[in-house]
Amino acid sequence: MAMTRQRIRNMEEFAAISGISRPTVSKYFHDPESVRPSSRQRIEAALERYDYRPNVFAMNQNRKLTKNVGIVVPYLTDPFFAEIARTIEMRCVEAGFQPSLFSGYGSPEQEVAILDTLRSLKPAGVLLAPLGRASDKRAIERFCAEVPTVLFDSNMEGIGEAFVGSDNFSFVMQTVEYLCRTGEPPSFFEMKNPANPNANKRRAAYLTMMERQGIEPHIIQIDGTGWAFEEIGKQGALKVLAEKGLRTDTILCSNDRLAIGFLVGAFELGLKVGRSKGCNLRLASHDDHPFSRFTCPPLTTAAHDYASVSEGAVKTLIDLIEAGGKLPNRTEIVYPARLIMRESA
Amino acid sequence: MAMTRQRIRNMEEFAAISGISRPTVSKYFHDPESVRPSSRQRIEAALERYDYRPNVFAMNQNRKLTKNVGIVVPYLTDPFFAEIARTIEMRCVEAGFQPSLFSGYGSPEQEVAILDTLRSLKPAGVLLAPLGRASDKRAIERFCAEVPTVLFDSNMEGIGEAFVGSDNFSFVMQTVEYLCRTGEPPSFFEMKNPANPNANKRRAAYLTMMERQGIEPHIIQIDGTGWAFEEIGKQGALKVLAEKGLRTDTILCSNDRLAIGFLVGAFELGLKVGRSKGCNLRLASHDDHPFSRFTCPPLTTAAHDYASVSEGAVKTLIDLIEAGGKLPNRTEIVYPARLIMRESA
DNA sequence: TTCTTTATTTTACGCGCGTCAAAAAAGAAA
DNA sequence: TTTCTTTTTTGACGCGCGTAAAATAAAGAA
Predict the structure, then answer these.
(1) What pLDDT digit, counting tens, does each position of B269-310 carry?
(2) Closest Cβ–Cβ partner in A76, A82, A264 for B296
(3) Are the beta carbons of B291 and A260 separated by less than 8 Å?
(4) B58, A60: Cβ pair inside 8 Å?
(5) Minimal Cα–Cα distance from B263 to chain A, Å?
(6) Cα separation of A183 and B303, whole Å?
(7) pLDDT tens for residues B104-158?
(8) Helix (H, G, I), strand (E, B) or coil at A11
């Protein structure tokens, strides 16, 4: 029990109390094995009596290589990003780094403000999931030139030392193949102006897949801006269903959040979604959003390999850091999706 | 366009370039109005040519009162906390503070680690939503004694300078009253060992409300630990419904996440939830979780006054900071809930 | 026991900036 | 123009810690 007989203000005070010089104490905190056992004992004895922890930010002030890692996501309120941020954070901690999490909540200005703050943090490296189209590319490029950065989730050509994400084609390939095999071919449901580059790749993949199967593609693009995807999906569904704008009974949403909204729209109109008999619609989607298993019906979707992406991203970043911040050539790692069949399709 | 002809490393370099002494530049960044117009012009001219930003962490190193604010939530992957963190963050930025967001993801050890990191940040104040029962009360108490802290969402008696949250009784009062008035009285559905103190208050409120109406209360407590409330709710629903453990057709969940799980369980068993004719169950809940309007059917729930809570928390913290970190007596502000009638009940 | 060699510790300085007291400049009054 | 005030600016030091080089202690060889 580290009792506080007296508050220790800094390493100097703590060193005085433990009877060791401050630099040695500093070495101890950097690596307890690096000091003589006798010193170590005295330090640890003092640590028992007075609880003291070095100031992380003062540590990084003058350190060549810090243990800080910045994690930047576009929108933390989206459980998809929250979940991937969580796993990445935990892996960073396991690897002995101290992660700091940031979200710009959809604002490009906030995004560059975060990068500026991050510079002050002198991170050993940064894991950045950029906003996408709305991002200030110049600012991000400049940042990546200064700080070892690995992009994840959404790629920006040539920016950052590496990219780790999911293989969008693999997502769409599996869902389209599954839907075509087990029923009518799907229409593709998406936002007209998606902010995220993955959306474009998924559309392209849909077109390719339909062409391969010799089926005329059908894309439904709905209006809406911002990050309220569920609401956008719902409104889109109400509109499309009212206009009878469907060609088949099967819909493939670009992502789960749109699908979640679509489900509500369909529900409101009294339509039954599912693959069983008596259902009016089949609905599938992509991402395996944390909530997609708790919708009614649960969503059939192509799942990110969350574990691999987060592990891969952190591993790539650590390699990058150990390589001194530069990689011989920009690597792109993408993990395939896994089809998850639930009730909705 | 701040072009970088030459990277500015620190304020010294920047001061040299702009032809002003460093301390004056420092003053400028603290308050541009505080320096002579001629100096200001020269600084801003230099700012146009060389983009430089002071190191935030070095700034705070030696500052009497920083502009840092720490925000700590128990589980950021829960959209409820993500949403409240987002609004709080934005209000802090508006008020001229720099928020840093932390989540312990349910781990008490992580929670105290975060508090230790926060000490290093020398925050002007901290907004803390503690884990609850699992928290290391001693550690939190010590922290609050050192750093001006306002608790939010979940209260801990006597800890922190103030508490801002929602009035649990108001939540339950409204849902119980509504359910009783429009149909059969509800059974109360909750976890057996809730980690969050709000859960206990809600149970107590349910008992009080039922007593007032002269109706025998009926509480269903389900097993489960951790933060996977939806799954717990689903399993609980499957069990309760299979055992026909309901007394009426109406269920009131302690919180929306349990309710979301309950909905899936009911769906799986082919039960229709809703207030319209032909439905088997009515289900209501508390929180107005961001997803509760996108469930099928959308959830009837008592909504947190998100805006008031976040505004009140930030305002209280700023008052606390301006009062020098101590308030004459510990204040507790709770905002009433607002009943939101949707399809589920 | 004495001299090397090597492992530790200490000395001294730096990181990027805040802040106070002293000095200089600007402005007002004479 | 000179003198006195009132800003501004600047010099000097400190924050809490990292780190290279110098000094010391421990260990081994002679």
Answers:
(1) 999 999 888 888 999 999 999 999 999 999 999 999 999 999
(2) A264
(3) yes
(4) no
(5) 7
(6) 41
(7) 999 999 999 999 888 888 888 999 999 998 999 999 999 998 889 999 999 999 9
(8) helix
- Chain A residues whose beta carbon lies within 8 Å of the beta carbon of residue B298: 264
3-state secondary structure at position A345:
coil
> What is the CB neighbour count within 10 angstroms for residue A334?
18
Percent share of chain B, pLDDT over 70: 98
Could you tell me which residues are beta bridge partners of residue A188? A219, A252
CB-CB contact of A309 with A164 (8 Å): yes
Domains in chain B, please, with CATH?
A: 11-54 (no CATH), 67-166+306-336 (3.40.50.2300), 168-303 (3.40.50.2300)
Of A260, A337, A264, the residue nearest A293 (C-alpha): A260
Structure-token match 């976890």, residue found: B191
Q: What are the structure tokens assigned to A194, written together?
A: 């998606």
**C-beta separation of B148 from B95 below 8 A:** no
Bridge partners, B235 (sequence order)? none
Indicate the pTM of the whole model: 0.90
Tokens 């979604």 sit on residue: A273
SS3 label, residue B235: helix
Minimal CA separation from B297 to chain A, in Å: 7
Q: How many residues does chain B have?
A: 345
Q: How far is the CA of B46 from the C1' of C29 (A)?
A: 37
Q: Confirm whether any atom of chain D, the nucleic acid strand, is less than 7 Å from CB of A62.
A: yes
Cβ distance A86 to B98 less than 8 Å, yes or no, reads no
- Count residue pairs from A and B with Cβ separation < 8 A: 105
Sign of CA dihedral A107, A113, A119, A122: negative
Residue (of A274, A285, A176) closest to A230 by Cα position: A285
Find the length of chain A: 345
| Predicted local confidence at residue A267, as pLDDT | 93
> Quick one: DSSP state of residue A83?
H
A80 to chain B, closest Cα gap in Å? 9
Give, to the nearest 10 degrees, the angle between helix B37-49 and helix B11-18: 110
Cα–Cα distance, A262 to B3 (Å, whole number)? 46
Buried b / exposed e over B54-79, threshold 16 CB at 10 Å, is bbbbbbbeeeeebbbbbbbbbbbbbb
> CB of B75 within 8 A of CB of B130?
no
Interface contact A100-B105, CB threshold 8 A? no
What does the alpha-carbon distance between residue A271 and residue A275 come to, in Å, rounded to a whole number?
A: 13
Query: Nearest to residue B172, comparing CAs of B122, B219, B224?
Result: B219
